[in-house]
Amino acid sequence: LAAAQAAIEDRIEALEPRARKLMRHRYIEGLSWEEVCVAMCYSWRQTHNIHGAALDALLAAEVVHGDWYGVGNMWMCTVCEEQFYTMAPYCPNCGAKMDGDEVEA
Questions:
Q1: Which of 76, 51, 77 is nearest to 66 (CA)?
Q2: Rg (CA), the chain
Q3: Which of 10, 36, 61, 98 has CA 20 to 30 A from 4's CA?
Q4: Whole-prediction pTM
């Protein structure tokens, strides 16, 4: 979980300053939308426009690819090497897309 949180914070830090500030207020500090609007001195509409653009930028980021491999009765991620009892489309620890490409961004 700590690795996933660090990865999210790194991606937020890569955003332009206004979007970075908004995302930190909302997702790191846990402010409500009203509190974000007040803290940034923006209207509800402008705040959500910035949020939408920030989400688009985050989703456009490079994807880390990996795969699962069996280790006894567990599955290990080829990217972060954490072990889990079940496989999923994405690693719950590092967020790697488990499509077998094993290409890191």
A1: 77
A2: 17
A3: 36
A4: 0.57
